[in-house]
Amino acid sequence: MTRDIPDIAVSRLPLYLRALGHLESNGQQITSSKELAAILGSSAAQIRKDLSHFGEFGKQGTGYHVAHLNRQLRRILHADLVWDVVLVGAGHLGNALLHNQGMARRGYRIVAAFDHDPEKVGTRIGNVIIQNNQRMRDEIQQRGIRLAIIAVPPPSARRVAHQLVEAGVKAILNYSPIALSVPDDVMVQYTDPVTHLQHMTYYLQDR
Amino acid sequence: MTRDIPDIAVSRLPLYLRALGHLESNGQQITSSKELAAILGSSAAQIRKDLSHFGEFGKQGTGYHVAHLNRQLRRILHADLVWDVVLVGAGHLGNALLHNQGMARRGYRIVAAFDHDPEKVGTRIGNVIIQNNQRMRDEIQQRGIRLAIIAVPPPSARRVAHQLVEAGVKAILNYSPIALSVPDDVMVQYTDPVTHLQHMTYYLQDR
DNA sequence: TAGATTGTTAATCGATTAACAATC
DNA sequence: TAGATTGTTAATCGATTAACAATC
Q1: Which of A23, A191, A76 is nearest to B18 (CA)?
Q2: Is residue B94 in a domain?
Q3: In a structure prediction context, what are the per-residue pLDDT tens digits for chain B, which is 207 residues long?
């Protein structure tokens, strides 16, 4: 029987990585749950509890070796591998993602990009040449790609998601503000500036 | 004494808006907590519970009037207002945000954008003319802007955040994968594709 | 040794779910 | 009226926090 790790703990590991990256860039070698909590605005107990689901990474009395914990968390998240990602939509946003250095540097490489606009197909952005949407299925299956990013206008998002799922994609990062429905074995994460802004303006009084 | 509404309930209202938008675009006039739950992959009880923090929006036996609930949620989130937003960083990502139709259409208007690159300053992207970073403080204060988006490269993010806070910004949407520290009365939301991808690859087996 | 900090247990807190009276 | 669905209460579940023995 597998120990059941709460998804909410998994979801915080990338934030811990972000804080560790900060410490590493400052040349700091050792940290503590207390210090990490201060950086992240959470609690030391929560960080220790979260980490305890995955193993023991620290030393009593001393704390955590920054580089070691970084490596371990990347391993746990499978972020120590290089992942191939497909991008659908080569508009302004797709263009920005193709130029995003951070993604490739952190192991998520966009290796194929698609658009239905004949003007764009065949052009090169960053390291990839934009292909016609019709090439999506073959490309995904040949390369065995499981990660996709949707950066198409809202009206096309559902259709594209369906095509990606059909082609075998297992995880979709969706930049369109559209609720997707996918099979149980496919994950979707949404990212939408308006959702974040709405959340924050709730707390801002009208003037 | 103010009733205390959980932030987690607030954070789901934008998702409910997203689902309502979908129903509205299909011309559907009435919905139910059950149907919304199916769209969002949550539970009917949770949706009713969440909404109950803010008022009574439905009719027993019937459900919710889509347009009415949409209006009410937008009002609660202050998303029925038009908000002015400043953007810092006019690179590929800033460019994409300036061209993003959805933001303006949903009431979040980028009214000023800044960059430190002299090549960019003075050029027009979408409806705004890029200004030098040095103009940030004045522009924010003169217009009384409280919302900002950071889309600068990681090394500059902290400095920019500091400048925004100094100028009076109260809510920051941070596109750089950098943990910011800000005063208690300033909100920060992070958005970073790698964080989402790492969360998902945890569940994908290596092959 | 004294001080610090981990990993873990138990207590607390809060969120989710189930159930149902009210009522359209 | 019968069926459906809300809003709310109470029960359950799970996450966070506090506390501390272990130990570096």
Answers
A1: A191
A2: yes
A3: 345 899 999 999 999 999 999 999 999 999 999 999 999 999 999 999 999 999 999 999 999 999 999 999 999 999 999 999 999 999 999 999 999 999 999 999 999 999 999 999 999 999 999 999 999 999 999 999 999 999 999 999 999 999 999 999 999 999 999 989 899 999 999 999 999 999 999 999 877
Flag whether the pTM goes above 0.85.
yes
Residue A202 lies in a domain: no
Nearest protein residue to nucleotide C9, judged by CA and C1' positions: A49
Taking CB atoms and an 8 Å limit, are A200 and B18 in contact across chains? Answer: no
Of A17, A102, A199, the CB nearest to B14: A199
Domain that holds residue A93: 83-195
The domain tally of chain B equals: 2
The residues, any chain, with a CB within 8 Å of residue B143's CB and separated by 6 or more, are B84, B111, B112
Domain boundary among A76, A96, A120: A76
Q: Least CB-CB distance to A191: which of B91, B147, B196?
A: B196
Q: Could you tell me whether strands B108-115 and B124-125 are parallel, antiparallel, or unpaired per DSSP bridges?
A: unpaired
